[in-house]
Amino acid sequence: MRAIAINIGANTNEPGFRGPVSPDGSFEYIPIPESEPTTETVPTYGDLAAHLETPIPDSLVETPVHLDPEFPEYPYCERYSYGDEHGVKAGPLSALSAGDYVFFYATLTVTAPADWLPPEWGAFLVGQFRLDRDPVVPTEATVPEDCFANNAHCKREPMDARVLLAGDPAASRLYDRVRPLSSPAGGTDPNGVVTDLSADSGRGPWWRRPLRFGAAETETLLGIDAREQP
Length: 230
Prior knowledge:
The chain contains 4 helices and 12 strands; from the N terminus they run E-E-E-H-E-E-H-E-E-E-E-E-E-H-E-H.
């Protein structure tokens, strides 16, 4: 069993702000904008606004969102699915197998001080998939399975996913509370999940990179997930 953690969600580049995280560990996941043409109408930030407490700027109300990963607990989502067109993530993700894990992390803005939180922003695990099957690597000759029909990459024209993942509903979820990757010292300072459990050095912009975990480290990470947070 192996795991990879990858960065997702709104940030200061796209769409210009991060989702919030509160002192009790609760948070709101906010997706990035959809940057490509789509074969059908997709939800906008205005559509999501009715389901969020985070204010959506007026300038983004009509902007379509890229709802990927797809968590059925989240508005307009149906299944646990994820797609990626970037080789730096699609390559390692496609090497996983059924039963392996993918953890999703986001950079979030801290709304109020707490001793376990960085002062302004940090990186936090916000969800997980246990892969229900081996990753699907689409080609021009293959059509994604029906279970990926609502995935954002499969709604693009043309479909551009280099890997598609399906999560086991029994062991996949969008968390209720975050699991920190940043230390309380600051958002750019990694904690032991990054430096001790993952294969990443924690140097440079680690919060943008895929983080790889071996079998024992994945078991430990799942144990951290099981404990009350924060």
